[in-house]
Automatic annotation (TrEMBL):
One Gene Ontology MF term: carbohydrate binding
Name recorded for this polypeptide: CD209 antigen-like protein E isoform X1
Stored InterPro entries: C-type_lectin-like (IPR001304), C-type_lectin-like/link_sf (IPR016186), C-type_lectin/snaclec_domain (IPR050111), C-type_lectin_CS (IPR018378), CD209-like_CTLD (IPR033989), CTDL_fold (IPR016187)
Record lineage: Eukaryota, Metazoa, Chordata, Craniata, Vertebrata
Superkingdom classification of source: Eukaryota
Organism whose genome encodes this protein: Cottoperca gobio (Frogmouth)
TM regions (residue ranges): 44-66
Length: 219
C-alpha cells in the first residue's frame, strides 16, 4: 500500500513538472500573437523609410539636374550674347567708330547742317554727342574743326537741353557765348574754339559743319 502511494505521488509529481504552467502558456500565446503582428509592422515601417529615402534621393538628383540645366542654358545665353556684342563691336570698328568707355564715337568726314547731321547719327543707331565730362569735352576739341554737338535751346534761350532731353548742367561756352551774333537766331551748338577748354559757340542750325555721333555701348 505504501508503494502504491509513493508511485502515485511520483507520477503526479512528474505530471506536474512536465505540464506547462498556465501563466506560462498564456504568456507564450501572447508572445506568439505579438510576434506575428509585429513582423508586418516592422516591414511596413522599413518600406516607408526606404520609400522616403528614395524620394529624397530622387529630389536631390532632380534639383541637381535642373541646376545643371539652368547653368548650361545661362552659359549658352551668355556666350551667345557675348558673341553678338563682339560682332556689334567689330561692326562699329570697321565703320571707323572710336571707343572711349562707355561710348562709341563716329566723327564725320563731310559737312552737313545740324538737322542733317543728327539724322545721320539716328540712322546709325546713335545721336549727336552729349558731353557729360571734362574728358569728353577734351575729346571733342582734339579734331580742330568746327563740329556739331547735341545741344539746343529750350523755348527760353536761357535754358539749354541735350538731344536726349536732359537739361544742361555743366557748360563749356566760349567767351560771351551764347549770343545770337548780329541778331541771328543761333539755336545750335558747335565746337569752335579748339585751343581752350571753353570751346562752345552757338550758331545757326542751317550752317554746315562736321559732326560727332555717340552711341553708349559698354565693352
Amino acid at each position: 500500500m505504501a508503494r502504491f502511494v509513493h508511485n502515485k505521488e511520483s507520477e503526479i509529481t512528474m505530471d506536474y513538472v512536465n505540464l506547462p504552467d498556465a501563466s506560462a502558456r498564456t504568456n507564450s500565446l501572447h508572445s506568439c500573437a505579438g510576434g506575428t503582428a509585429a513582423v508586418p509592422g516592422r516591414k511596413l515601417y522599413r518600406l516607408v523609410a526606404v520609400s522616403f529615402g528614395l524620394l529624397c534621393i530622387l529630389q536631390v538628383a532632380l534639383n541637381i539636374s535642373l541646376h545643371l540645366t539652368i547653368d548650361a542654358s545661362c552659359t549658352n545665353l551668355t556666350q551667345e550674347t557675348d558673341k553678338r556684342e563682339l560682332i556689334n563691336f567689330d561692326h562699329y570698328f570697321q565703320q571707323g567708330w572710336v571707343y572711349i568707355r562707355p561710348s562709341f564715337y563716329y566723327i564725320s568726314y563731310i559737312r552737313k547742317t545740324w538737322h542733317e547731321s543728327r539724322a545721320d547719327c539716328l540712322q546709325r543707331g546713335a545721336d549727336l554727342v552729349i558731353i557729360n565730362s571734362k574728358e569728353e569735352q577734351d575729346f571733342t576739341r582734339q579734331f580742330h574743326k568746327n563740329t556739331w554737338i547735341g545741344l539746343t535751346p529750350q523755348k527760353n534761350k536761357d535754358t539749354w537741353k541735350w538731344v536726349d532731353g536732359t537739361p544742361l548742367t555743366k557748360s563749356y561756352w566760349g567767351p560771351e557765348e551764347p549770343n545770337n551774333f548780329e541778331g541771328n537766331t543761333e539755336d545750335c551748338v558747335e565746337i569752335r574754339f579748339f585751343e581752350t577748354e571753353n570751346s562752345w559757340n552757338d550758331i545757326q542750325c542751317g550752317d554746315q559743319n562736321f559732326w560727332i555721333c555717340e552711341k553708349m555701348l559698354a565693352l
